[in-house]
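Worked example 3 (structure in, sequence out).
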């Protein structure tokens, strides 16, 4: 049994802005079920403290002129010991990265540098807990300084750094590097300097014993210039330490047979009951109640990465057919306005809700026939996995984790009963319209459509399988550590 410190800036259900929270809320549970001594650590945001409920202060210490309390509780709905770093930096409204007006906190570098230093103190047991990590699992740029800081120690835990999205790197100016009181020798291209900027993410990419991403295909893609954001050369140099492990999903949270948010539960044996959720969703969005009309859903950030340019270009041509679309998300103003405009012009075909609702996201997964996910890149993606489980066929671009998890409706895959969705290639142009047309054509064949639904629902993307792979990577990381504790 290993002592694992799992460090993250968000974890569901304590605090969530994206897929990282889902991973951080599920993987530690799966690891604990595999008999690992795991501790989840994140900042003590007001929302996280409130949702964790009962907790106690187990340590107090000073760090960079900040008074810090370490709070201990349990991740709700689990037995995972959870630690919250309580400091004034984190006691503010808004989400982990921005205020209530959607503006990025100007002191994010200081906030997450302090968080990273606190993680190192705890991992080295400098605060007297009597618990020292064998391995620290860091996630995304907010904890990427941890491997760099631990590398300064004569003996240290092993480190694993997981890239959930390379597009977010934590870039700041040189004055910030000085302000953070980081070791001066880390300001070099072989360390944290990146084109005269401080790069948090390089702390993980350069110094971690192992690097992982959240799908095998994304691990390959980020070694290429078009997906590497200037870090592809570094990643190619460290390709022996780089691997891709598909995310899992919480199969209890996302289970159409027991999901309390649904109007009607269903499973593979009672798939016909899924139609009740479709009618309820059409009513909710004030769309005509047409059970035979192909209903597409979209849930996500309204940003370029999620394929919004392709969606907005493709929708008008689809509206001649018997189809409906529902959208849930928020993001760039021009995309929000573009969808609203189309919804106003075609109120019987398109409905939009700006914002996010966990309950509504479950109802969309259950109530739609197909799920629209034409991301231009997608490290792993979770919604296509939820869709598969709910018998809602994903329409995806052949990138990253989407390519790894959805099998296209080719004649061969259909004949072998392996098809689980609609996959298209290409960056822009005719790919998405053709995929939407193929979805419509398949929908006309009810026998084939149900066959693909059942194949989709048979897929196993539980965390147990992924957690076992992470355990193997933890073991490899311990073996790679040049400065082991013992």
């Amino acid at each position: 049994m290993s002592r694992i410190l799992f460090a993250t800036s968000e974890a569901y259900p304590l605090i969530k802005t994206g897929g990282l929270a889902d991973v951080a809320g599920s993987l530690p549970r799966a690891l604990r079920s595999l008999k690992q001594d795991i501790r989840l650590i994140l900042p003590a945001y007001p929302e996280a403290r409130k949702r964790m409920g009962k907790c106690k202060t187990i340590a107090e210490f000073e760090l960079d002129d900040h008074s810090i309390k370490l709070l201990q509780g349990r991740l709700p709905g689990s037995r995972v010991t959870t630690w919250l770093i309580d400091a004034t930096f984190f006691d503010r409204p808004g989400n982990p990265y921005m205020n209530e007006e959607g503006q990025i906190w100007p002191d994010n570098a200081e906030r997450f540098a302090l968080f990273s230093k606190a993680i190192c103190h705890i991992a080295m047991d400098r605060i007297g807990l009597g618990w020292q990590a064998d391995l620290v699992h860091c996630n995304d740029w907010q904890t990427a300084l941890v491997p760099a800081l631990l590398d300064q120690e004569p003996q240290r835990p092993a480190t694993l750094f997981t890239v959930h999205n390379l597009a977010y790197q934590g870039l700041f100016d040189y004055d910030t590097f000085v302000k953070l009181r980081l070791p001066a020798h880390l300001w070099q291209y072989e360390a944290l300097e990146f084109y005269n900027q401080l790069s948090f993410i390089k702390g993980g990419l350069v110094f971690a014993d192992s690097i992982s991403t959240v799908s095998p295909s994304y691990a390959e893609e980020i070694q290429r210039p078009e997906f590497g954001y200037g870090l592809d050369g570094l990643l190619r140099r460290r390709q022996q330490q780089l691997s891709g492990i598909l995310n899992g999903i919480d199969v209890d949270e996302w289970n159409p047979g027991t999901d309390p948010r649904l109007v009607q539960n269903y499973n593979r044996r009672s798939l016909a009951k899924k139609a009740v959720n479709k009618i309820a969703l059409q009513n909710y969005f004030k769309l005509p109640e047409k059970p035979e009309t192909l209903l597409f859903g979209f849930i996500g950030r309204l940003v370029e990465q999620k394929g919004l340019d392709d969606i907005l270009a493709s929708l008008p041509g689809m509206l001649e057919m018997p189809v409906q679309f529902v959208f849930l998300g928020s993001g760039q103003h021009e995309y929000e306005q573009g969808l609203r405009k189309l919804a106003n012009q075609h109120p019987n075909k398109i409905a939009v809700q700006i914002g996010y609702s966990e309950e509504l996201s479950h109802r969309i997964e259950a109530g739609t026939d197909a799920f629209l996910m034409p991301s231009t890149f997608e490290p792993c993606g979770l919604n296509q996995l939820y869709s598969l489980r709910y018998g809602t066929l994903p329409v995806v671009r052949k990138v990253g984790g989407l390519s790894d998890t959805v099998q296209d409706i080719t004649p061969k895959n259909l004949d072998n009963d392996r098809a689980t969705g609609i996959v298209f290639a290409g960056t822009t142009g005719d790919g998405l319209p053709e995929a939407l047309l193929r979805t419509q054509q398949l929908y006309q064949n009810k026998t084939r459509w149900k066959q693909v639904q059942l194949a989709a629902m048979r897929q196993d993307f539980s965390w147990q399988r992924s957690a076992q792979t992470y355990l193997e990577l933890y073991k490899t990381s311990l073996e790679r550590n040049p400065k082991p504790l013992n």
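Notes: The chain has a mean pLDDT of 95. The radius of gyration is 23 Å.
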